[in-house]
Amino acid sequence: MINANRRTVTRWAAAFAIGLAVGGGSAEAQDNPYNLIDPTMISVGTMSDAKPYVFTDENGNITGFDPELFLDVAQRLGFDKDHVTFTGQDFAALMPSVANGRFDVAAAAIGTTDERKKNVDFSDGYLAGYLSVISADDKLSSDDALKGKRLGVIQGTLQEIYATKTYTSTDLVKFPDNNAAVAALNNGTIDAHFTDYESAKQYVERYSELKITINVPSFDAPAGFVVKKGNDAFREALNKALAQAMQDGTWKRIHEKWFPGTPMPAEYLPK
């Protein structure tokens, strides 16, 4: 009789433990619907020297178009600015860091390409523009003129991809960030630097001897937020929040703040 009761208690305890495990798993899924590293915080990988997209201000804070837009999107998902962390690093490390689970998302004007989508997933596009060559030599204004020249590119960017395919007779010199490349340009180590239009505009304003010599449209690879492959819940939530920001005019306001005078694609504006 005692043994039978013990067996009954043991079976009941085991069943209760299984029930807790199943219930706990369900509760955990409900508490972390976006599969974040920390359910209470969104961890964002970004850059720190790509003004006006993203950069570190005089107070040491990461700011710019991408962080401001992402903070608005995150708020629509229920995360205020105190529950979003930005970490700057080299561009080439951003997508691998998301794929490996170091960050929940990357936001740094990262162009969407089929090759990149093999390793990570992208939100809907939120930015499109031009790629630009800057140089002190205004004669470097064509593909032919760049032949035999040393052209700086940021490793892992659309510019590197485009230059590798297009400037096949040009000596490409890879850098971790724009500041290092422009420093090399100013000291004569390279002849020109290939970056995005908005960053190029900032550098030619800062250094009077530099000029934009080539502009290349890049509307076929719009920037998107990068998330870990298969995290559809997070990606779809970002898409929904992005659409809301575009339809209520928030995207337009932020774009006008950081890119005054720059044309805006009609698909990103309120209908």
Compressed to H and E, one letter per element, the order equals: HEEEEHEHEEEEHEHEHEEHH
Gross CATH architecture of the largest domain: 3-Layer(aba) Sandwich
CATH superfamily of the largest domain: Periplasmic binding protein-like II
Q: What portion of residues belong to β-strands? A: 15-25%
Reported for the largest beta sheet, the result is: 5 strands, mixed
- In what order do the strands lie side by side in the largest sheet? 5-1-6-13-7
Features:
globular, single chain, alpha/beta, five-stranded mixed sheet, D-Maltodextrin-Binding Protein, domain 2
How would you describe the overall organization of this protein?
The chain is an alpha/beta fold. It folds into two domains: 42-128 and 221-268, D-Maltodextrin-Binding Protein, domain 2 (3-Layer(aba) Sandwich); 129-218, 3-Layer(aba) Sandwich (D-Maltodextrin-Binding Protein, domain 2). The chain has helices spanning 2-31, 65-76, 91-99, 158-166, 178-186, 197-206, 232-247, 250-258, and strands at residues 42-46, 49-50, 54-56, 62-63, 84-88, 105-106, 120-122, 130-135, 150-154, 171-175, 192-196, 211-217, 226-228. β9, α4 (158-166) and β10 (171-175) form a beta-alpha-beta unit. Residues 1-29 form the signal peptide. Keywords: Signal. This is Deoxyfructosyl-amino acid transporter periplasmic binding protein. It comes from Mesorhizobium alhagi CCNWXJ12-2.
